[in-house]
Specification:
Length: 134
């Protein structure tokens, strides 16, 4: 009986710990797509993008301007503070990509982390950005 209880305890501990580290958005991400939920626009293929979530701080660049701000995660909700950005003029696909992404990174949004894919959906569900872990 003791052996069975120890075996069950080990299984319970392993199951309880199995989602821990992978459930964190902490780290560096690259932009995969952005825009309306029903018609995503792929990220510009010739642009190196980076968004980093680290210790409550967000920073990145999705093609033109650097940006940063604060964030907090509670459950599946990502709450973002004001985002500050450099103000260079960005036109064409890179400008559209930056506008579409930064528009999503304000207030609060829902997120789903599926392996190395992070999907952030606006509070009203109309817009989405998809990121891949770097």
């Amino acid at each position: 009986m003791k052996r069975l209880m120890v075996g069950l305890l080990v299984v319970v501990v392993l199951v309880a710990c199995s989602g821990g580290a992978s459930a964190s958005i902490t780290g560096q991400w690259k932009l995969v797509s952005y825009g309306p939920a029903a018609s995503q626009t792929p990220a510009a293929s010739d642009v190196d993008t980076s968004i980093e979530f680290l210790d409550g701080k967000l920073n990145g660049n999705v093609g033109c301007n650097g940006f940063g701000g604060d964030y907090e995660v509670k459950g599946d909700t990502l709450t973002l503070g004001p985002i500050m950005s450099t103000m260079m003029f960005c036109e064409g696909p890179v400008g559209d990509q930056e506008t579409g992404t930064l528009t999503m990174l304000k207030d609060s949004a829902k997120f789903v982390l599926d392996g190395d894919k992070l999907t952030i959906t606006s509070a009203d569900g109309s817009a989405v950005i998809v990121l891949a872990r770097k």
